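Researcher: We're teaching a course module on how sequence relates to structure. For the next exercise, students receive a sequence and then see the predicted structure as tokens, so they can try to spot secondary structure elements on their own. Here is the exercise chain.
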Amino acid sequence: MKSSAIKIAFAWALINSTSVYSMDSDMSGETTQSQSVCEQVLGSTSRSQKTNVNWAQRFVSRLQIEKTALQSGIPQVERDRQNEVLGHFVSTENSEVLYVFSIADLSGIKQKGFLNGHQLRKSTWAESEPEHSISGLSLREYLAERRNVENAMANAKPSAQRRPKYALIQFYDPVLIKTVMAAGGTSAGDREGGGIDIYGSVAAVFKKDVRSRATFTLSDSLQLWGEKATLNSLEVRANLFTFLEPKFIFDPKDRHWEGRYFEAQIWGDLSWDDVEYLMVDPYFFDKYPDSKAIHGELELLKGRGIPVYWAKKPDTSLANAFPQLDLGEFKERPVSELGYWVKGERLY
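Model: And here is the predicted structure for the students to work with:
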């Protein structure tokens, strides 16, 4: 959304919908008018006994309604011109959403559900990781900036359980994949030294219905906005996508595309019931030679009906990983350059 007309319209929508997303109450504890509107539109767990999942679905639905309304207000000729300039449509359906985690977090996930790494390891982070491994910020700085960005995305201050859990999206679109490869591959993850991802050795692939409460951005939301994010932030809200739209325009020239990967934000609670299957790093046993106990825990997931697969090795060719896609000159390049996890043989 780059035209001034879209930005003006989006600003108008934000001004008129602020009460919808506000979650404030006055000092006396009485419900304010804006909170009442919020409950009607998004739902409230405290008063209506609705779950965080229902809240998240309503939030994402409302966001998509706003975006659709803005698009319908633009003349078709202008939309066609923008589409031609911006380029390629990517299907949101032909994709997977993955949460990559460390095997050390497995017990925490079993107890608390899927949370972000800094939440699962909150008690030990300050000692083991004085700086966040990706951003280089201290724990205090990282959490403050992360909260700012989340508040800006929601245009509210959601509770801890409703805040997003961060994941990767793998779009299986040949034009997008070839664009990423031509630009030098993805900046997500680190495949050096035989590893498959800096975030961990296991990837949980979520079921399709999780997308109804997910948003996504081009690259890392924290790096995109950081401390600049504020409530009613036009830039933040205008650059959120949802899976409720069957396709989106992929513009490789967009300045937000610097990271060359997609970050998903899944709002509300996440549990093992939301997992379609797991993939395990093919170098798992090299990293954890004494891993019988962990191996057993993974095997127990069979009882939940969650299959576990090996991920294909990082040197697997793109042609072998995605035989259904025409990737042209890039077909013999290793999947490590793309940064995707690819399902291999069944483990459990």
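Model: If you want an answer key for the exercise: The longest strand covers residues 95-101. Residues 245 and 335 are 28 Å apart (CA to CA).
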